[in-house]
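FAQ: What does the model actually see?

It sees only this:
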Amino acid sequence: MTPTKTTKTEVEMVIRNRKTVMKEGIMTMSGIGEPSVFHALVVIFLEFFAWGLLTMPIISVLNATFPDHTFLMNGLIMGIKGILSFLSAPLIGALSDVWGRKFFLLVTVFFTCVPIPLMTINTWWFFAMISISGVFAVIFSIVFAYVADVTTEAERSRAYGLVSATFAASMVISPALGAYLMDLYGEALVVAAATAVAVLDVFFIMVAVPESLPEKVRPSGWGPAISWEQADPFAALRKVGAERTVLMLCVAVFLSYLPEAGQYSCIFVYLKLVMGFGVVQVAIFIAIVGVLSIAVQVVLGFLMRSLGAKHTIMLGLLFEMLQLMWYGFGSRTWMMWAAGVLAALGSLTYPAISAYVSVNSRADRQGVVQGMVTGVRGLCNGLGPAMFGVIFYLFHVDLNEEHAVTGIDGKPQEKYVRLVPGPPFVLGALLVICALLVAAFLPEDGTVGSGRRAPADLKFEVERGRRVAGTLSPLMAPESAAL
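And it is asked to produce this:
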């Protein structure tokens, strides 16, 4: 009997050692220097620079592929991608706590960029792969976890701001460059350039990015370390109704971010196909709104000190409501530019919400509430684009370039003849008005998440909230950067 026991023990040790070697081989791939925020910034910049180059080519390909249902298909594609991202984010976040950040940075960047070269090969497969890639479209979750690993609590807010600013900067530069290259050399060269940037990003992660997750905090085995509660995307949402202030905050986020997510998914297509914007105009529009959004973030601290978190949230919602109204009722080009300025001003809403949580939450509850807000926003990333696409379809606002209204000179007219050119934007404005009313009843200094919880539950939820934290207020939702 003794030899049998010894043999069984030896087999178990061999299996355990093989797992450990495989795991360490995945997570300790070579990197340059110590892990830092800089590594995360480069990864974010390169990925969204690649997709930003394709902003204008994708509009043309989308219209050519779905000429009769452009906005409907755009909404469905982005809706599927957003919902898949919402469902997969907690699981990938939990796995990154076990396998390490570097491996999942590589996986998310690779699979979200796989569709890029398909654009010149088969457009149907291109859009299908964009939808499916939503399973891995959680790059911000992994990047923010990476940043959390390499910064102290005092440094973290500034580092998160740098990540969001880097994302915005990549989207300021790349659409204009992509439009310029497309005008000179055609779509094929732009797709090749975007593919090259994506390959460079993958190569950078493999060679230069060091693992940030300390070995001592990793579980010894990944199987028992992950529970269904950690992987459940609705876990945070189920806790929303537990406390009145949290419920009100999440309702305000849902009502305001649902139309914003829908707007981000289609605004550039809308400007080109309905409002008659040219390729260069759309690129300049993106750049100006991006620069203004960054400027707004700079003055956020002053507004918070002057008005307080609650009134800053309400101010941001007011600007969002006005810009949605202008997009919905505007029929001239200058109105769209004015709405873009208001959109930049409205970008202070979600940093203000995060600040409200930070100011009015106990230290051990901030991750919990932030996780709930992030869960609501993730759900909106799937529902918003689908809602906008369906409403455009129901109101027959589904023009393509061949049917666009043209003037005597053959150029698109500045005015699209319709009482309400953008019905989804008007509906979105009404939802934001409801969000504004809800926000008005938020307590000035109420404690968010003051209920008492078990210490073990708190530790899990804080860590989960940190893992799934997304951008505070990007110029456009990452999932919509492709369309």
